[in-house]
């Protein structure tokens, strides 16, 4: 794992939601409004493919089949990205962890390095997510923006990601937002909920 300073323990938020729920869009806005850094787990993985990293074939096979990339691969990329970035002490991690094993590995490998704040869960209807992904596929160029892979990603989200949601709900570290609303409304609700959550 990446070397780190014992004096620096960056703040981390997880942003979770189904495919097309608006995680990336909301993180981009939050990064501007809160002066923090947005790290997309998916984008880091796609960058690792285009940069011909040692994990290229593993990542490629997982993404194209809608399966979850092995935890140590994703955590290694996130670890490096957090501790190479000096512009902020607050990080929004979008699209990770995606299953319980991801979360357990993150806790084992990263909890002593960072200060975990909360999970922001963008709850979105299946119809809205399908509509958004269909629209996005026209311009995104992403290999996973198709109906076949989308169905597999829905199953992963329902079967695996919900266990993480419940874990953080029980720990009172969950903020849940209705993602079917407009981009502006969702952003306003996240900012308001963060303010309330951290004043308690």
UniProtKB/TrEMBL annotation:
Cellular-component GO terms for this entry: cytoplasm; nucleus
Pfam families reported for this sequence: ADK
Reactions this protein catalyses: UMP + ATP = UDP + ADP
One GO BP: UDP biosynthetic process
UniProt keyword annotations, A-Z: ATP-binding, Cytoplasm, Kinase, Nucleotide-binding, Nucleus, Pyrimidine biosynthesis, Transferase
CDD domains xrefs: ADK
Keyword Aminoacyl-tRNA synthetase recorded: no
Family to which the UniProt record says this protein belongs: Belongs to the adenylate kinase family.
Protein name, entry field: Uncharacterized protein
């Amino acid at each position: 794992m990446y070397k780190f300073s014992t004096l620096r323990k960056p703040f981390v938020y997880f942003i979770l939601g189904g495919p097309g729920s608006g995680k990336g869009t909301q993180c981009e806005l939050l990064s501007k409004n809160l002066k923090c850094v947005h790290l997309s787990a998916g984008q880091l993985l796609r960058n690792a493919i285009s940069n011909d990293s040692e994990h290229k074939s593993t990542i490629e096979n997982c993404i194209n089949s809608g399966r979850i990339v092995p935890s140590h691969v994703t955590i290694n990329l996130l670890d490096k990205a957090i501790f190479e970035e000096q512009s902020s002490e607050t990080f929004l991690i979008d699209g990770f962890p995606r299953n319980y094993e991801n979360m357990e590995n993150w806790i084992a490998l990263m909890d002593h390095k960072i200060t975990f704040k909360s999970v922001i869960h963008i709850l979105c209807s299946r119809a809205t997510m399908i509509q958004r992904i269909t629209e996005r596929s026209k311009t995104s160029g992403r290999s996973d923006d198709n109906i076949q892979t989308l169905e597999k990603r829905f199953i992963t989200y329902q079967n695996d990601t919900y266990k993480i949601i419940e874990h953080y709900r029980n720990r009172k570290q969950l903020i849940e937002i209705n993602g079917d609303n407009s981009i502006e409304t969702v952003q306003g609700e996240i900012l308001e909920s963060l303010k309330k959550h951290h004043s308690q």
